[in-house]
Write a structure and sequence with these properties.
With 485 residues, the chain is α/β, with parallel strands linked by helices. It has helices spanning 19-34, 54-66, 72-82, 93-109, 127-136, 158-169, 187-197, 200-203, 228-253, 262-275, 409-412, 419-429, 438-453, 469-476; strands spanning 10-14, 42-47, 83-87, 116-120, 146-151, 177-180, 211-219, 284-290, 292-294, 297-299, 317-323, 333-339, 346-353, 374-380, 384-392, 400-408, 458-462. It has 14 helices and 17 strands. Strands 16-15-14-13-7-12-11-8-17 form a nine-stranded mixed beta sheet, sandwiched between helices. Strands 3-2-1-4-5-6 form a six-stranded parallel beta sheet, sandwiched between helices. Helix 6 links the parallel strand 5 and strand 6.
């Protein structure tokens, strides 16, 4: 696919006046246009509840994109020429038919070939009525191609995920569907495939013979902020583990694809999901942050946050041991953890290699104890890689010291594209490799479905710590420990 030659199209954003469009979509689309990738592409914002003129929407768009561009004249010109707006008010079938006429009018006015993207930047409860409105108005088919983009959460359990898939497939083929997980747009996540399969020095040791364990951590300093209503119904397992962390795990563990195309890559990720053993209760630790201190300042307990019930049992932390029953990974534990109010904001993958089979330097003393090599892949912030290895420190007696081979994206490249820039470009070029396929979504929910339904013990941890002590014990019983971040 030539991603430098995007076909002319109309990019329709449902939820056009919403937060996601203002924070992410409009800035990303403008950056793509600024790079010359969106020639003859037009943006149509659509909102149900907001009465707004097209001029007022363009003014909103100008304010948004000016923050990303020094030359405000260029951004203003783009907004005036390429950004449009329509209100669909109550969202009835009649209104969608009118919207279809307006879309066809825009395509005729700007000589567009009928290529359309429908982006659902809206709450999950609006997905189905919007999909039905698009489909019943005949907008799911056109003279060109038609694609629909659905933000997470894609369901909130196995049953709802299956139901949503069925409702989508009533009007759209799977080849038209882009279930977006912005985490997969991050350069370091994408680079996992290149790192593994373009560097035989690593691929040759990427197995149970050389790797002791793998650790994936996605930590947040923030609490629930203004998302208490959503988060208290959702929790960390649904919000982070089922999608972000599981996606990363499948990329780390997958076999080499037959080809670097979307279906081959997604097939291999799906095989990893099918190989995961059922998760046992003793393999999971749930936590909820209590009062503590962050950066020297007092931090509220989760139950004291505005909008959270005083008796809430929602988890804000999850640590889990996962086991993959296949030839490559048999016996290698994968540890994942995520949480709010942890000491720092960081997302890292740590591959711990087995120690040398014979500790030849051990007779020289405690400073020469055998240590594992570790490969640390940082997803955010400060994207890059560190390979930790042992060297002899200068002088006598012999002392081993840990040093790093280091690679930083920001040092090597001037600018990293925002995740949404990457994903929107893939949507426009028709590349589904970084998007969630229907079977992956359902199998991922199936992994955690019983856990979501059962009553679970949620253990307290002080804000500003790395979770409850039981999370450390989860690794200790296998002789392992969390890598120091």
């Amino acid at each position: 696919m030539d991603k430098n030659r995007i076909e002319p199209c109309l990019f329709i954003i449902f939820g056009g006046t919403g937060d996601l469009n203002r924070r992410k979509l409009l800035p990303a689309l403008y950056q793509l246009a600024r790079r010359g990738l969106l020639d003859h592409c037009h943006i149509l914002g659509v909102a149900r509840s907001t009465e707004m003129t097209e001029d007022a929407f363009r003014a909103l768009a100008r304010d948004v994109v000016r923050s990303t561009e020094v030359d405000s004249g260029a951004s203003g010109s783009w907004c005036d020429q390429c950004v449009h707006y329509r209100s669909i008010r109550e969202g009835s079938e009649h209104v969608y038919l009118n919207l279809a006429n307006e879309i066809e009018g825009l395509e005729k006015r700007y000589s567009l070939p009928g290529n359309r993207v429908f982006y659902l930047a809206m709450p999950p409860q609006s997905f189905v009525p919007t999909i039905e409105g698009i489909g019943r108005a005949g907008l799911n088919r056109s003279a060109g191609w038609t694609r629909i983009v659905i933000e997470k959460p894609f369901g909130d359990d196995l049953a709802s995920s299956k139901k949503l898939n069925a409702q989508i497939h009533e009007f759209f083929d799977e080849s038209q569907v882009y279930r977006i997980d912005h985490y997969l747009g991050k350069e370091t996540v994408q680079n996992l495939l290149v790192f593994r399969f373009a560097n035989p020095v690593f691929e040759s040791v990427w197995n149970r013979d050389r790797i002791e364990n793998v650790q994936i951590t996605v930590a947040e300093e923030l609490g629930v902020e203004k998302r208490a209503g959503y988060y208290d119904r959702t929790g960390a397992l649904r919000d982070m583990v089922q999608n972000h962390l599981t996606q990363v795990l499948t990329l780390i563990a997958m076999e080499p694809p037959a080809a670097m195309d979307a279906e081959s890559i997604r097939d291999e990720k799906e095989k990893v999901l099918r190989s995961l053993r059922p998760i046992q209760p003793e393999d999971v630790v749930f936590g909820q942050y209590a009062a503590g201190r962050m950066d020297g300042q007092p931090a509220l307990a989760y139950r004291d946050e505005p909008g959270v019930a005083q008796d809430s049992n929602t988890e804000t932390f999850v640590a889990m041991r996962l086991r993959i029953a296949n030839w490559r990974w048999q016996g290698v534990p994968f540890y994942v953890r995520t949480g709010k109010r942890l000491p720092k904001r960081v997302s890292k993958i740590v591959v711990i290699f087995k120690i040398a089979p014979v500790a030849v330097f051990q007779p020289f003393g405690a400073s020469c104890q055998p240590r594992s090599n570790a490969l640390v892949m940082t997803i955010q912030p400060d994207e890059g890689f560190n390979l930790q290895f042992q060297v002899k420190a200068p002088g006598q007696p012999i002392t081993l010291a840990t040093q790093n081979l280091h690679f930083s994206y920001t040092e090597a490249f001037s600018r990293l594209a925002d995740a949404y820039e990457t994903l929107l470009l893939d949507i426009l070029s028709g590349d589904q490799a970084l998007f969630v396929r229907a079977d992956w979504a359902e199998h991922s929910w199936a992994l955690f479905d019983e856990m979501l339904k059962s009553r679970r013990e949620v253990r307290p941890y002080a804000a500003g710590t790395w979770g409850p002590p039981e999370a450390d014990q989860l690794l200790a019983k296998n002789g392992h420990a969390w890598f120091s971040l």
